[in-house]
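Objective 1.3, modelling of assemblies. Example input:
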Amino acid sequence: MRLQQALSSTAIHGVLMGWTLLALFPLALIIINSLKTRKAIFGDPTGLPTGNALSLKGYESVIDDSDFLMFFSNSLIVTCVSLFLILLLGAMAAHALSEYEFKGNTLIGLYLIIGIMVPIRLGTVALLNLIVSLNLINTLTALILVYTAQGLPIAIFIFTEFLRAVSREIKDSARIDGLSEYRIFFEVVIPLVRPVIATVAVFSMIPIWNDLWFPLILAPGEETRTVTLGVQQFIGQYTVKWGSVLAALSVAIMPVLFMYIIFSRQLIRGITAGAVKG
Amino acid sequence: MQGSSSQSQPTPRRWYILVFLAPATLIYTIFAIYPILESLRLSLYVSDASTTRFVGLANYTRLISEPYWADQFWNAFKNNVLLFVMHMLIQNPIALALAALLSIPSLTGAASYRTIFFLPTLLSVVVVGFIWQLILSPLWGVTPDFMKILGLGDYFKPWLGLESSALITVTLISIWQYVGIPLMLFYAALLNVPEETLEAARIDGLNGWWVFWKVKLPLILPTLGLVGILTYIGNFTASFDLIYSIQGGLAGPDFSTDVMGTFLFRSFFGFQSQLGDENMGATVASALLFIILAGVSIYLFGVQRRLQRYDH
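Predicted structure (C-alpha cells):
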C-alpha cells in the first residue's frame, strides 16, 4: 500500500514536472541565447552563455536602435490609466446597483454586463470611424477609452456580486453618523471592496497589456506604439539579427516575469477567488 | 433614465445615483455598445466614392455566396470551428487533468506548479508566437536537433510553413500559452468541492480515481460549461492576435490558418492587393456577432440550464 502510494506520488510529480519543463523551456531558451554571440546561438543553441559565448551585443543594439523605453511607457500609461478608470468607475456603478433601489436597476445592471459576452472588437469598424471623428486617432487616450469600456462589464459584475454579499450595517451606521452618500462610497465602500480589487485588476490587466488588435488599428503611429505592437514590428525589421531579436524578446518578457514573481501569490489568489464567485 | 427614476420615490431626487452610474454607463455606451450597433447598421449599406445606399441584407448574401467573399468566409469559419474543437479536445482536458493533480490535498509544491503553469498566459502573444517560430524554425535547428536525440530526426518538418500542419501547430502554441486559464477555473472549482462530500465518498470505499469521476467531475460541470463558452468566444475573436503575429495578415500558408479575426481585419482594412471595404468589414463583424450570440444562447438556455441541475 505504501509502495503504491509512493509510486503514484512519483507519477503525479512526473506529470507536473513534465508540464513545468514544457512551460519554462521556451522562455529559458530565449533568455539564455539572448546573452550569447551569434556563433554560439547557432552552434550550440542549448549551451549556457559562458566564456567566449557570452555577448551583450543584442541588448546594446536593442537599446540603441529602438524606442523600447517609449513603448514601455506607452503600455504602462495605457494599462495603468485604464485600470484606474475601470476600478473606480466600475466600483461606483457597482455600488449604485447594489446599494440603491431605483427604477431600471436590473435593466441597467444587465445592460452593463452584456459586454462580458459580446467582445467590443466586433464594433471595430464603427469604433475606428468614431475615434477618427473625435480626432483621437494615434493617441493613447483612444486606447484608454476603449480599454475602459472593454473592462467595465467584468469589473461591474465582480464588484456587484461582492457588494451584494456585504452586510448593509456598516453603510447604515455611517449614514446615521451623517456621512454623505459620496463620503460613504469613498470612506466605507472602497475599503470594503479592497479584497476583490486584485481579482478585477488581473482580469482587466492581462488583455490590455497583451492586446495587439486595438494598438494596430487605433494607434499604430511611432509615438503611440505599445510594447506588444512595438515588439511585433521590431521583430519584423530585424529577422536576420538573431541576437537583437532574442534580446528584444527577453526585454519584452522580463518586466512581466519580474512583476509576476513579486505578485504571483496575490494574483493567483485573486483569480481563483474570482472564479469561485463567477 | 436614472434621473427620472427617482421621481417615483417620495425622497428628494437622488442625484448621487446618477453621479455613480453615469461615467461608467457613458463610456461603455459610447465606446462599446454604440460601435457594435453602428457596425450592424453599416452592414446594411453599400458605399461608393460619394454615395451611400441602403441594400438590406445584400451584403450578407454576398458574404456567403459571392465566390470572392464566400471562399474566404467559409474557409475562415471552418478553421475557426476546427480551432474551437481542437481547444475543447486538447486544451481543456489537459487543463482539467493538471487541475485535478494540483488539487490533491497532500501534494507538495502545488503553489510553485500553479505559478509556473499560469506564467505563459501572462506573456504577450507576439512574444509567444515569435519564440515558437524560432524554436520550430529549421534554420535554428533546436527542434530538429532535439528530435534527432530522440531518434525521430527524419520526422521533422517546418510545420508552421506547411498548409497541412500550420493550423494544428498554431493551435498547439495557443494551448501552450492559454492552458492556464481553464486550469485556474477548474482548480478553483475543484477546491470548492465540500470536504464532507469527499469524506462520504471515501467512506463508501471509492479510491482517488473514482472520487474524481463520480463525485468531483459532476460537481464541477457548471465550470466545464463556463470554460466551453469562454473557449468559444476566445476562439472567434482573440485568435486574431496569435495568427497575425505568427502567420501575418494573410494567415498563410495559402490562408490555411485564416480565422474570422484575420478575415475581418483584411476585409475592412485591406491587405496588400485586397482593398479595404468598410461595409463588408461591418458585415463580417456582424456575422461574427451572430455566430457568438448563437453560441452564447446555446450556452445560456441549453448547456447552463441543464448543468445547473447538478449544482446542488
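Chain A has a mean pLDDT of 85.
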